[in-house]
Amino acid sequence: MNNIKYTSIFSITAMLIIAGCSDNSMDQETANAESAPVSYYNQLLPCTSGPDASPENMRKMIAEWNQLEAMSGDLVWAGGYAPKGDDNAQDNGWWELQWTSKEAADAGWEVWMASEEAQAWDKQNDAILECDNSLVSSWTFTMPGAESPDFDFSNFATETHPCNLNDGKTSADLMAVAKKYDNWVIENGAAEGYFYGIYEALDDDAMFDFLWANFHETFEGLDAGNSNFAQNGADMQASFNEVASCRAPADLYDSYEFRNLMSDAS
């Protein structure tokens, strides 16, 4: 089996027994639009469930994955995305890997592929989860100007917008609009924790130039945020439309954190 389960969660929305999301809200004063953007090298793998997939087996598999000696310390975050509803453009889910750099990712994969323990773990979990590493995609993930909020990442809501830059527009134009949006969020943001990220495609055959992802504590908060933007964000939307065009509707995912070494990486 050449498919490597180096990440993913997908169409099992009840994979984990999740504690209730925190009621702590984002401190808007700390979401300073003048903060320097933070970027990482991220990878996404599409995955599908096997015949033995269950919440218990998934929890066990993820716990074992985190304990493998082949796991790189430069893999600072990992999470999974299970499709929410029936309107997503793709019916598979995703496992996301966040690395400190492309060089770190390449080195991490080399160690992983050479590890007998890791390959044995992969094979024994074939019936639980199937991820195809030949379809891994690479992205520069940027959090423009705003720190992540104080909420429970064990279970959260994600909305992704696949987008293309308009003719003549560049990444710099996109980040300039993001900076303007940071100010809009500070002035108009809802109480519930929220942040966003921009995934700029690094692969030559990518279908989109970038993904705009909104992260909320809950889907109720996501709906409230979209309603707020619909009521108060017309000028902001017009500025964004000058730079990029996005596919509609957005894709929705139940989202889960599987690994977090961010405090060690900072």
Output the keywords:
globular; alpha+beta; disordered N terminus; 266 residues
Estimated structural class: alpha+beta
Radius of gyration: 18 Å
Alpha-carbon distance between the termini? 36 Å
Poorly predicted segments: 1-34
Account of the 3D structure:
It contains seven helices and ten strands. It is of the alpha+beta class. It has one domain: Alpha-Beta Plaits, CATH 3.30.70. The longest helix has 18 residues.
List the helices and strands and how they pair.
Layout lengths: L37 E12 L5 H13 L7 E9 L9 E7 L2 H13 L1 H9 L4 E3 L5 E7 L12 E10 L5 H18 L5 E8 L8 E7 L2 H14 L1 H10 E3 L4 E10 L1 H4 L1
Antiparallel strand pairs: 1-3, 1-4, 1-5, 2-3, 2-10, 5-7, 6-8, 6-9, 6-10, 7-8
How do you describe this structure in short?
With 266 residues, this protein is α+β, with helices and mostly antiparallel strands.
